[in-house]
Amino acid sequence: DSGVTQTPKHLITATGQRVTLRCSPRSGDLSVYWYQQSLDQGLQFLIQYYNGEERAKGNILERFSAQQFPDLHSELNLSSLELGDSALYFCASSSGIQETQYFGPGTRLLVL
Amino acid sequence: TQLLEQSPQFLSIQEGENLTVYCNSSSVFSSLQWYRQEPGEGPVLLVTVVTGGEVKKLKRLTFQFGDARKDSSLHITAAQPGDTGLYLCAGFYNNNDMRFGAGTRLTVKP
Description:
Distance between the termini of chain A: 31 Å
Radius of gyration of chain A: 13 Å
Helix content of chain A: under 10%
Strand content of chain A: over 45%
Radius of gyration of chain B: 13 Å
Largest sheet of chain A: 7 strands, mixed
Largest interface: A-B, 24 and 24 residues
Shape of chain A: globular
Largest sheet of chain B: 6 strands, mixed
Number of strands of chain A: 11
Structural class of chain B: mainly beta
Distance between the termini of chain B: 35 Å
Number of strands of chain B: 11
Oligomer: heterodimer
């Protein structure tokens, strides 16, 4: 158990819909990272937050957004969902900016 | 194009055999991590290498960071079925951007 929690574990929705994925980092960690993992793309970095502020952006679509709240939990919002958004979404946390990342168990999103 | 190229992509071996997987890049990394991921689970950190030429051992696993800090290898001695999984290397690129290789999917048959 990494100490990072993600909810929900599974999510099935339809194209065009909007979903919110939630992540609680390890106790004391200030950084939260979001990744997307699909079979053909591998693990892709989406976005990083540090102590509530956005620190780095990767291959995140404009339909996707995220935020980190004062209690340090984070949410990833995915809107206007497409079939190709079906993937595993992982959250990771670390104590600092370039410190070791610990991954949560992931949310499996299926868009029908 | 992956910033970190891992090879081989797939590897299937018998229990007891040795194997080496590779992680290569044209970029220099300040540190490089190796993770193992099992189906349906998040990646779990195995090791972080920081110094060029560094060698770290974790039981039957030996990790090496290249002298120029552009490549790394993972050697497993006497592989066991429990070693089966997806092995990912990762490094920080442009400060905060963590990049992962596509992984080596290892299957160890009993």
